[in-house]
């Protein structure tokens, strides 16, 4: 029995890791849309698979936190001749599925056929960029992006990075700030920052930006409550020279000037 | 005399800072395409204005390094009732025009009418994301983005940040690595990194990625020559655990695993 699109020699298969952007199809690139349409199989975390525009593709939706299994499944399908789109929210290259696919490929136990699969990555708009756009231009100067998940790295590495990033006076974007299994990490990261940065430092919480229920909060390092964030939030903490512009009846704009003078 | 779309009361004007992505229309979001089509005026650096799909819009192309003038012109046009798209390559929020527009708005001398202009930012795929996608997944773990231009910040701030970023073991993306007026900065940044990172550390040079003449070089911190970069290059330097996967007849894939153990 042969599924549609399968070739016995596997020669026609490919694997593309596709960034869906942060939410709406309005941020889905033409490249990503075309690769999704040409795929025979969609592989990904359930909520992302659900966001793929309707089509005849076979959908392999999986649970969260099984990225490597998903990557292996995708490589195996492509090696069999399927045209496989592995989908990620945002940019698949930023804390997402692209690294997992290369980890699976780099496993010494990976079949040689996997190395012959034509492999590509379609970049996309990442969550911090969407939140930044809604808030103004907080990422307009040097910045860093740190995942607060300590599932895959020791917490001491996270705090050390947060401290060095604060000393470097980077704008900081936190991915994976909080979850039921990791309730205290964001508060601990704010505590580290408070030792270096002023309480007035602008803090942006961008929740599900681009989705119908998106929410943007502009607050400060002194006032922010970690409970204002959830799994779908990206947190951006300003640098010492990040500024606010008041707006009538709305949250202020937040931007980081391109010019920099070190704080006195 | 009234140009098309002008309203005497200025009520219909708007200003949107539009990210064109790194090059091809394949990476231009539907949102950006629509806003460009609805604009009466396109404002931007000449080569970016040239990339806007053909249409009846008035094109105000300006020279490089006049970002603030351009931002003021755009705000003034929008306050007069024009529908203005300020265009940037990549993501306008990342080392690009969005910050300049907010700087112009934040000037105490800015007319009150500028504050009434409906203002939006359309995010886009930034150059480091395009280069990362072509190379594999080098940004798959914590990373930072640093502009090497010392036009707007003291060089000591740049070197301090590069050193702290290396100590934090971030993957590092360098924007504006080199130009005729700034020929030595990239080499100096590599020298700082060589004091902390191993010579085998992967280095990616992504030149004009997405354009017809794009070029991707994968090399190492020990071997890289700053002369391999130019104004249209983004440079990505790996973290201590960034890895290579050999490919037959092509440059190796570069990826940074999601899992991290601090180097011994």
Topology at a glance:
2 copies of one chain form a homodimer.
Chain A: E1 14-19, H1 30-38, E2 41-45, H2 46-49, E3 58-62, H3 67-79, E4 83-88, H4 97-106, H5 112-115, E5 119-122, H6 127-135, E6 136-137, E7 143-147, H7 155-167, E8 171-175, H8 185-194, E9 202-207, E10 215-220, E11 233-237, E12 243-247, E13 250-255
Parallel strand pairs in A: 1-4, 1-5, 2-3, 2-4, 6-13, 7-8
Antiparallel strand pairs in A: 8-11, 9-10, 9-11, 12-13
Assembly context of the chains:
homodimer
CATH overall fold name of the largest domain in chain A: Methyltransferase, Cobalt-precorrin-4 Transmethylase, Domain 2
Q: Residue share in helices of chain A? A: 25-40%
Q: Outline the biggest β-sheet of chain A.
A: 5 strands, parallel
Shape of chain A: elongated
Please tell me the overall pLDDT of chain A. 94
For this structure, what is the CATH class of the largest domain in chain A?
Alpha Beta
| N to C succession of SSEs of chain A | EHEHEHEHHEHEEHEHEEEEE
The N- and C-terminal alpha carbons of chain A lie at a distance of 72 Å
Q: Would you count the extended β strands of chain A for me?
A: 13
- For the record, the count of structural domains of chain A works out to 2
* Biggest sheet: strand arrangement of chain A: 3-2-4-1-5
In short:
With 264 residues, chain A is α/β, with parallel strands linked by helices.
Attribute tags:
disordered N terminus; 264 residues; Methyltransferase, Cobalt-precorrin-4 Transmethylase, Domain 2; Cobalt-precorrin-4 Transmethylase, domain 1; 25% strand; 5-stranded mixed sheet; elongated; 5-stranded parallel sheet; homodimer; alpha/beta
């Amino acid at each position: 029995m042969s599924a549609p699109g399968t070739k016995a020699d596997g020669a026609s298969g490919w694997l593309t890791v596709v960034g869906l952007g942060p939410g709406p199809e309005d941020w889905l690139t033409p490249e990503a849309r075309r690769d999704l349409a040409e795929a025979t199989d969609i592989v990904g975390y359930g909520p992302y698979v659900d966001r793929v525009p309707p089509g005849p593709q076979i959908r392999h939706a999986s649970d969260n936190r099984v990225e490597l299994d998903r990557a292996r499944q995708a490589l195996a399908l492509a090696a069999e001749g399927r045209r496989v789109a592995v989908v990620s929210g945002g940019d698949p290259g930023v804390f997402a599925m692209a690294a997992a696919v290369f980890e699976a490929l780099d496993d010494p136990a990976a079949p040689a056929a996997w190395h012959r699969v034509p492999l590509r990555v379609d970049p996309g708009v990442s969550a911090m960029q969407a939140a930044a756009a809604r808030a103004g231009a907080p990422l307009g100067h040097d910045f860093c992006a740190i995942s607060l998940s300590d599932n895959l790295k020791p917490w001491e590495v996270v705090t050390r990075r947060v401290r060095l990033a604060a000393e470097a006076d980077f704008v900081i974007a936190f991915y994976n700030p909080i979850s039921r299994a990791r309730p205290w990490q964001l508060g601990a990261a704010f505590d580290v920052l408070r030792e270096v940065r002023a309480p007035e430092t602008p803090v942006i919480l961008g929740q599900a930006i681009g989705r119908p229920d998106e929410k943007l909060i502009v607050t400060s390092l002194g006032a922010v409550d970690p409970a204002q964030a959830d799994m779908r939030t990206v947190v951006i903490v300003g640098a010492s020279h990040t500024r606010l512009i008041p707006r009538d009846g709305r949250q202020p704009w937040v931007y980081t000037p391109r010019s920099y003078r070190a704080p006195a």
